[in-house]
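Contributing new records

If you add data, match the layout below exactly. Sequence lines come first and carry their own label; structure lines follow with theirs. Keep one chain per record. Anything else will be rejected by the validation script.
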Amino acid sequence: MKLTLLSGVLLAGVLGAFAAITASGEPVSVTSATRDHLKTAMQGEAFAAAKYQLYADHARKSGNVELADLFERTAKVERFEHLAEEADLAQLVGDDVANLQDAIAGESYEIDRMYREFAEQASAAGDHAAASLFEEVRRDEMGHRDAFKAALTKMRPKTER
């Protein structure tokens, strides 16, 4: 579970850093099927980067610095090369308003559907630790959504508020 949460956070943070244009500065159009493949690939790269970083942390704590360095180097490639290039090609990042709107929609989904349903299902199955974690994360997501909403409000002209 921690890997999934970390990869989600990682994906959100990393994707916010990339512009949606090619190296030449020209947008590239891809088919909807290719866009779906890019989304799947980005999720895989984000998860791998997060997982490898956790593996590196564990290896370092275990005294295996060489292995930790290998995991960290690989995580950086997954995040800053593979994910970045795929996000660029998918034109994932828009202007600040569009990015905030997308972030609000994503956080709202996690709050209203995903984590609520996960918590209910885990509780019904007797997985109380998981249910508690899902509720805790859901509350955190509420804070993220509200912070994004506040930022969006600040960006809109007073007449639109």
